[in-house]
Amino acid sequence: MRTRLSARWIVGHAAGHHTLVENGCIVFEDDSVLFVGHDFPGEVDITHDYGTALIAPGFIDLDALSDLDTTILGFDNQPAHEKGRVWPQDYIPYEMYTPEELAFQKHYAFAQLLRQGITTALPIASLFYREWGETTAEFSSAAASAADLGLRVSLGPAYRTGNSFIDDAGAIDFVFDEPRGLAGLEEAITFARAHDNTHHGLVRAMLAPDRIEGCTEALLRRSADAARELGIPIRLHCCQSKFEVDSIMQRHGMTPPEWLENLGFLSHRALLPHGNWVSGRDLDIIGAAGATIVHCPLVSARGGRALNSFARIRKMGVNIAMGTDTWPPDMLQNLQTGLITCRIAEGTATSVRAADYFDAATTGGADALHRPDLGRLMPGAKADITVFNFNHDRIGQIIDPIQTLLIGGSSRDISNVFVNGRHVVVNGAIPGFDFAAAHARAQAQFDGLVARYPERTWKHPPVSEIFSTSYPPG
C-alpha cells in the first residue's frame, strides 16, 4: 500500500540536515518513506491532505514517562526526602502496584506518548514504589502493549544494587544488595535476548541500570560488557542531582563521569539523563566516549535546575537527545522549556534556535540509537510521522512552522501520527482506546498510591502533612 500525505509544510531531510518543503507531499509504502518533495510521479492507494499543517518526523523520547508520575507530588512539596521520595529506615519495601496495575499504567502511558507525537520511546518508571527492581514479566506485557498500540520502543527492566534511605535522625544513607542487583541484570539480559527486534522490529532491547548512586562497580562493569556483547543501548541516570554527585564523590573520590570512565562504562551506547550537574572535565569525558546526554528540561526546571547549557554542550560536539520523564510527556513543552532556560543560562537570545531543539528531539535521538532510518523523513527512512494542525486561531500568527511550534505550540496541536507506516493516531484519537475510562482508572490507581505514602515517608505523617493544598480549606 502506498500512502500520500500533503500539507503546507513538510520537514524533509537531505544532505545530513532537515529541510523545509512548502506545499509538498510525502509518500510511503508499507513501513518506509519513498518520496519527499513535489509532484510524486507514481500511483498511490491512499491520500490525506492536511491543509495548513506541518508534517514532521516523529519525536524520539529517550527517557519516556511510562507510569503514573510521582514526581509531580514534589511540585510544591519539599524537601523530597521528607515527602516520601526516600524510604524511611523502618520501611519494608513491597510492590505497591499489582501486576495488572503495572501492565495497565504502561499501556496507558504508551497511548499518551503517541498522542504527544512521540513515535520512538525508551520508557522510564520510578522504583520508589517498587520492592526493588522491575520484572521481565511486566516488560513482556509492555512489549505486547507497545506492539498493540503501534509505538516503537526499546525496553528493558530497571535493576540496581543499592537504594537510599533516611534514618531516624534524618540522615540519608544507602543499603546495598549486590547479589540481588546482579540477578536483576541477568534477568534483563535474558529479556533482551528474547525480545530484541521483535514485533516486526517495533520492539528493541536496552539495558537500564537505575540511578548511578544505587549501582556498584560490579553491576556497572558487567552491564557495560553485556550492552557491548548484545549491541544494545544502555541508559543510566547520571549527573542528575547534587545528592548523587556528593554520594559518588564521597564513595569513590571521583565525579560520576570520572568514575564511569574509570570503569569502562562509557561508550557510544551510553545514554545519560540528565547532565545537570557536571564540572571540570566531565563533558570532555562524555564527549570523548561518544555518549549521549538525554536532556529533560521540564522536570529539571520544576526542580530549579537547568542544563548549563544546551548551547555550550552542543558546541563541544556532545550529542544531546531529548526525554520527557514527567507528566505531561509533552515533547513540545520540553523543547520550549529547554530553549528558554538555555537562553537564560547564556544570557542571550542568539545562543540557540528553535531548530536546534527540534533536531535534538529527532535526529539527536536517532543518532543516539544508531538508527539513521529514524528521526528524519527521506527515502528509505521508517514512516514515523507526526502531523501538527495549524488550522486554528490558538496557534497565533505563523512566521515559520518550527519557530511557531516552539513559541505557542502544544501536544494538542498533534492531529495524526503514523508509526512504521501504521496510522496510530487518527484525528487526535487512538482507534479502540477509551481515554476517558483509562484516565478514570489511572486516577484511582494514583489515589490509592498516595493514600499509602505515610507508610514510606519519614516519621510517617498523614497524607495532609506530606502534600499541602495550594490554599487552606475554606
Describe the structure.
This protein is an alpha/beta fold and 474 residues long. It has two domains: 111 residues, Urease, subunit C, domain 1 (Roll), CATH 2.30.40.10; 316 residues, TIM Barrel (Alpha-Beta Barrel), CATH 3.20.20.140. The protein is 34% helix and 23% strand. The protein is built from 14 helices and 21 strands. The strands form five sheets. Strands 1, 2, 3, 4, 5, 19, 20 and 21 form an eight-stranded mixed β-sheet that branches. The protein has a four-stranded parallel β-sheet with strand order 6-8-9-13. Helix 3 runs parallel beside helix 4, helix 6 runs parallel beside helix 7 and helix 10 packs across helix 11. The longest helix is centred in the middle third of the chain and has 18 residues. It is globular and about 70 Å long. It starts with a strand and ends in an 8-residue tail after the last helix. The mean pLDDT is 97.
